[in-house]
Design brief:
Number of strands: 10
Strand content: 25-35%
CATH class of the largest domain: Alpha Beta
Order of helices and strands: HHHEEEHEHEEHEHEEE
Shape: elongated
Radius of gyration: 21 Å
CATH superfamily of the largest domain: Chorismate lyase-like
Largest sheet: 6 strands, antiparallel
Helix content: 25-40%
Length: 237
């Protein structure tokens, strides 16, 4: 068989087994060397086939752990007021949040413009890892205006920040501005998501306004692309 035919055979076989749940969500695939022996081909051909299935979101790779069958994607409506834990629970999944760091930083240059700040302004930067059904799928950085959230460093930051803002500071989101685009993962986000540097991810950046129409924070989300589906319904005309 030609390399192209072998590649198609591997893809079709794995795709059918995933579709019928013979290979169940979360199942670890055999090592690339074992798959090469099974299909009587080379590891290069196997890697090409697995990369195609990864692009489709059917499987995912974790650094130093191997390949796994993807779990169902989380449906994510950025326009919804539902917070992460509430959104995950509503889809009969389990959510967890781990706080990685909380520190005061000089505002990144692009946020000075985006958030209408003065040069060299300070922001509170909170980094968190978010899991669905025990798998880390989201790395998020929150940049908060410190004058609006005094003492937030002492709060339980593993909970919903949306609820915390309302309960402790009397602030509610009124509207948000989103930017959504595919990108390549780097730095702490890559290690947190168990991805190799440069792997494809989905980036969601959100500038949030409160009920007084002030910019209060910015969220930068990095999603494993196989873990999420963006779904937005248009308003009726």
């Amino acid at each position: 068989m030609t390399t192209s035919s072998l590649n198609s055979r591997i893809i079709d076989t794995l795709r059918r087994q995933i579709a019928t749940a013979t290979l169940a969500p979360g199942h670890k695939l055999p090592a690339e060397r074992e798959l090469a022996t099974l299909f009587d081909t080379t590891r290069i051909t196997v890697k090409d086939a697995l990369s195609m299935l990864e692009t489709e979101g059917l499987i995912y790779r974790e650094e130093r752990r191997g390949w796994f069958v993807s779990l169902p994607r989380l449906e994510y409506n950025p326009a919804s007021r539902s917070h992460f834990h509430e959104m995950v629970r509503a889809q009969q999944r389990q959510a967890q949040t781990q706080v990685l760091s909380c520190e005061t930083v000089v505002a990144p240059c692009e946020l000075v413009t985006e958030m209408g700040l003065s040069p060299l302004s300070k922001l509170i930067r909170i980094c968190r890892a978010r899991c669905i059904d025990g798998r880390t799928v989201l790395y998020v950085e929150h940049f908060l205006r410190p004058e609006l959230f005094p003492g937030i460093e002492q709060q339980d930051l593993s909970q919903s920040l949306t609820a915390l803002y309302q309960r402790e500071y009397g602030l509610e989101y009124s509207r948000s501005r989103f930017d959504i685009c595919p990108t390549a993962v780097r730095g702490e986000a890559a290690s947190t998501l168990n991805l190799s540097q440069g792997s494809p991810v989905l980036a969601v950046s959100r500038i949030n306004y409160d009920q007084f129409d002030r910019v209060i924070d910015c969220d930068r989300e990095i999603w494993r692309h196989d873990a999420v589906r963006i779904r937005v319904e248009s308003l009726s005309f």
